[in-house]
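pasting for ref
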Amino acid sequence: MEKSNKVYVVNVKLLNGNWVKYRAVQGSAGVKRLVKYFDEHFVGENKWLFCNVYEKESQQQVANYLNGKNPTRP
């Protein structure tokens, strides 16, 4: 993701089947920090599988992270 000042919504799928939603992530740097946070804190039963990133205003999907390793664009 390129550096931006946009606001994003991030939906995270956990191993236990639950979803976690972050509604106001500030910029692409905020998304990167959030993915790092997932790697550090979502472990064991609450391990995260993937997250989808959307622009808050348009709800258009801009990125998908698979277990924090390989960011891909849809």
